[in-house]
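TL;DR need structure tokens for one chain.
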Amino acid sequence: MERKLALTPETWLERIAWSVAYAAERADEVEFSAEDATRSDRAFLAQACRVAVAAGATIVNLPDTVGYTAPDEYITMFGEVRALTPELEQVELSVHCHNDLGLAVANSLAGVAAGVVQVECTVNGSGNARAMQRSRRS
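>> reply
TL;DR here they are.
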């Protein structure tokens, strides 16, 4: 964040709050996606999730953006972030796994094992499709 975007953590949290609130005023469903969640500091990731939920996010996505996390590490990450962020009980959790090391399917299933209800994936090599989603309306 500081190297790639030249932003301080405080500025980043302000931008999360503003952009999620802006979207929530205009849409019933707002997804906050924490780029590179698997390599992020867990305490800051939890803080970003809290800010997003408070601003109106209805889905929180914790992606394996660089496609390098192992399934057991992904399950552990979800457990740690949930323990630090009780607000996540109010929203749907989502995964989005890249396949750089061939672990996208395994990590997506690990996310499901960790309680995630939405898997974002590529089907047959094209596009981003929601493969699994529980509806809050049902």
